[in-house]
Structure formats: structure tokens, C-alpha cells
Amino acid sequence: MKIRRLDLDDQSINPEHQALGIPPVEYQITHPSQHPLLRIASYLVFAILIGLILYLVYRLFLGGNIRSGAQIITDTLHDPMFWGALLVGLIAQIIDGALGMAYGITSSSFLLAVGASPAMASGATHLAEVFTSGVSGVSHLKMGNVNKKLFFSLLLPGIVGGLIGTYILNTIDGHALKPYISLYLLVMGLYVLSKAFRHIRARSDINTKKIAPLALFGGLMDTTGGGGWGPIVTTTLVGAGHDPRTTIGSVNFAEFFLTVTVATALFSILDQSVWIIVAGLVIGGLFAAPFAAYITRHLKTKTLLILVGSLISLISAFNLYTAFGHF
What we know:
Keywords: Membrane, Transmembrane, Transmembrane helix. It is found in: Membrane. It is a single chain. The chain is mainly α. Helices cover 75% and strands 0% of the residues. The longest helix is centred in the first third of the chain and has 27 residues, at 36-62. The chain is globular.
């Protein structure tokens, strides 16, 4: 469950984030957006979220299940998978809250380590992100953090990349695909680690023609690997000189539509155990904010990047070792 409030005020942590080319910590700022197409998109977000809530309530309590909703909840609380997912959600949200990115690649790395298939890891992660990415995206829109040109440049290519990724997960055997997903997550872990030792300079010569291919690649890798949209798209655009505030807002708003598309496309190939994992991820994320705030106050961003990058890399290396050990 991804919960973000961008802290874009002039505080000591933000120049450090800007120098390293990663998103700042979040808080709300007041610059209302009035673009009609973006307004329609925000209404669509709310309609989708309300529809999903009603669907979940119907399936849980009114869908003609043999067991009652209360019994399902009780069984879930006694399932070790739920508590494992809760711990994963807690860790992933702490990392995302402190760095402003890496929720997907962190949760997917851990889920793969505990035996989830690539499709299950990606599907559960994206389902857990639907609500929070929607709220985050609309918040950015209402506060003027969405650049409509950048948003629409990201939207369709990102969705197309996501759909290609779901096709790959749906057609290739999970056991055969898992080593390659672990290798991708290892690369992403090393990429996050490298951010601790790189400094960027804002440039004015921004090439908008590169945005669509970047979004296509980001959507593809985000889906197949269970995460990576933020580290790939946001950090690349910010590193290229795009305004951090509108870049993060636009990427987050586009991420909601990518997340809904991926979650919908993967829903048909996942079994009911995905909801146990999703519940654990969401509930774990709800309790993570205080820990993320503590870490942000007491550790420098560079130190955090080294710790997180090393953690993801080590877990992915372990997943690679385990995967190849079965061949």
C-alpha cells in the first residue's frame, strides 16, 4: 500500500534528494488544477475506486458465498501467508515512505523470496496499489502538480507497456520466468544503490520525444517485475531536468491508470489467495508511516539508498540462486 505526501518545501532533505535525482518526501501543496480533461480523469479515478469498494463488499458479504464474510476474515487472520504479506507491506511502505519510490520492487522481491509466482507477486502488488495510487494521483492533480502534456505523454505508452507485460506473465510459465524477473529486480536494486553515488544537474534541453519510449519501457518492466515505474520513469525524468514537483505528480497520476489496467488484466489468471496477500500488503502499509518518518529524520538519503539498494539486490540474488538451483 503506497502512501505518499510529497514534501516539496525548502528543507534540508529535498536538496539532497534533488542532487541524487530521486523524488522528495511528500506533503500537500495548494495549486489547484483546472484543466477539463484532467478533471474528467479525476472523476474517473473516484468512480473506479468506489466501484472497486462496492465490488469487494459484495464479494465478501453479499456474493452468495458458502462461508460468511466474518468467517473469511477469521480464516485470513489465521493464514501464515497473510502475516508474511503484512510484514512485506510494512517493509515496502517504510522504504517507499522514506525514499518516495521502490514500493513495487521491494514488495515483489520479498514475495518472490517466499515462493510467490511472478504473476502473483505483480498482481498482488498492483492490486494493493490501486487505492493509494488513485488517492495520491488525484491529490497531485488537485494541488497543481500534474503537467497535462507530460501526463498524456506518459499515459498511453505506459498502459501499452503494462499490457505487454501482462501478456508475458500470462503466456510464459512462472517457473521459467522467475529467474529473469529476479535478475531484473537485482538490476533495479543495483540501480537504486547507484543513485547514492550519482549527482545530477538540471538541464534545459529536455527531449519530449523520449518520454513515450521511456513510459512504454517503464510500464513493461513495472508489470513483469512487479514494480519499477517510479525508479525508472520518475528518476529518469527528474535526472533529465524536468521539474520535480510536476514530474512526480504527473507520473503518480499516470501510475493509477497503469495500475488499474495491470490489476484488471492479471485478475483473471490469479487464484483467490491473491486477496490474502493484498490484505496483508495494505494493512502492513497502514502501520508503516511512523517508522518511515523516524527513518527519514535519522538517516541521510544517501545512507537509505545504500541500505535499500543493498537489501533489494541481496534478496534478488538469493532468488536467482534459488531459481537456478531448481534447474
